[in-house]
Amino acid sequence: MANRVDLEKQQRNIEEPPRTPSSIRSPAMTSEGSEHPRDSVADDQTVVDTPGSPDEVDAPGEPKLDEKTERSQYLVKWDGPDDPENPKNWSRAFRWYLTMASGLLILNATFASSSPSGVLPQLIQEFHLGHELAVLTISLFVVGYCCGPLVWGPLSEQYGRKPILLVAFFIYTGFQVGSALAKTTAQVLIFRFLGGTFAAAPLTASGAILADIWDADVRGKALAFFTLAPFAGPALGPVVSGYISVGGASWRWLFWVLTMFAGFCFCVILFTMPETYAPAIHKRKAIRKRKETGNDKYISELEAEDLHWKQRLENVLARPFTMLIREPMLMAITLYMSFVYGCIYLLFESYPIVFTEGHHLNAGESGLMFLPIFLGGILGVVIYILYFNPRYEKLIPIHAPRMVPPEQRLKPAFLGAPMFVIVFFWFGWTSYPRISLWAPMLSGLFVGCSVIFIFLSLFNYIIDAYLMVSASALASNTVVRSAFGAGFPLFATQMYNKLNPRWASTLLGFIALIMVPIPFVLFKFGPRVRRTSKYAPTFD
């Protein structure tokens, strides 16, 4: 009798319209139900698990539940706001560890992308390459970034972050071994491309991990440390490879170093990083409940989708590009970040022209010229944490219980965008050999600082604006950015030799100047654009 009364109460609760937070209006889903719910508040709501067997539910005399109601009744989510399985309830120390570990994975990928720059002379000599073909060892790795995110980002939204990272890093480590043992030019280039494809997994999954484990009030601070990794890697790669070359070691030692680094990161993922994606945890929880109770009706969001494999494949491959095409704000952000990212990789070719040819530094010393970029990145992170992030945190109680509008994340770019323009004129017009090398070298300090401001603002904006499909948004962003990063080094040498460093840098400075209004326009018109978005929740 008690079970019957409880069942009637639960049925009445189910028949009531669900209460959704007034702070976030989720955009409409497709008719196929292909998109995940993106309401971060709704993810924390308690779902009552109904005990008992199916026989109890369909007992004679009891009203039969329709399929939709029954499915929602057994939908497994968090057991209340304090569920220990919820990554946002894990200890702060452990979440900071996961943040640093995710950054380490990014550091690995970006370090590997730029590291051959210091051993290019050895590759040219051993394989009788032209300079442009040798530069492909950098560009093809970054081209791999264009292919990988198309798969890794959406797959991480279907199967979770950890399985994708494990598979990708295991295979990526193998391709580093292949590069170290390569006997021909074709082998080197193919292994570099494939290595970049699998190294791209953390470029989308690691950023999504931060969205999984942090609320908006702390996410900006966590992302500040995390964002340093994509710029530390390219800056440190030429330093290490330059001194490997100067020390007389074979270029193959560089790839053995990359192999050991990749293998270490694989172990970090395997032994220390748990799954953080909420729907994947819910699926694991549903499987456990089915085994414990013998009731096969327990189901998770991912299982409830019940998509045909063709539709699932379409979601995986098409969603990033669909979002990029349909979302004007994502397209504008991606264009701006891609240009900035391409300029970073362009410096790998322009710095040797200015410092090696102009100031007669060796490969190791020339590699040290990249360190100010890394130090500028650290400076940018410190300024963000001490100045910009506290001001964002003050907005949280003002907007509570709503989320702070994503446009508030753009303010660091108001400083970073003009600064990025200035550094190109600074670097270009102090690049004369008769001027102390300290002048162009110190411009790198502000390159790093401005890039951190721009990327922190826009990364945070993407994550806050797209929430549960942020991995797909980051994937499309990464693909286009990587195309720019791969293409810019291919014409950098010719451009700097024919225009000379002064006018080549001036050209880039004027292009950067044209893009300065993008964060300001987004700040003013972003809310209006988001109201028309199919993927971004609104905050009004």
UniProtKB/TrEMBL annotation:
Residues spanning the membrane: 94-113, 133-152, 164-182, 188-210, 222-241, 253-273, 329-348, 368-389, 410-429, 435-459, 466-491, 503-523
Short name of any one Pfam family annotated for the protein: MFS_1
UniProt KW Heme keyword: no
Major subcellular location class: membrane
Compositionally biased residues, Basic and acidic residues: 1-18, 61-71
Chain intervals with Polar residues compositional bias: 21-32
A cellular component annotation (GO) from this entry: plasma membrane
Keyword annotations from UniProtKB, A to Z: Membrane, Transmembrane, Transmembrane helix
Membrane topology according to the record: Multi-pass membrane protein
Domain of life, source organism: Eukaryota
Subcellular location: Membrane
SUPFAM superfamilies: MFS general substrate transporter
Any one GO molecular-function label of the UniProt entry: transmembrane transporter activity
InterPro entries according to UniProt: MFS, MFS_dom, MFS_trans_sf
This protein's record includes keyword Secreted: no
PANTHER family the UniProt entry points to: MAJOR FACILITATOR SUPERFAMILY, MFS-MULTIDRUG-RESISTANCE TRANSPORTER-RELATED
Protein name: Major facilitator superfamily (MFS) profile domain-containing protein
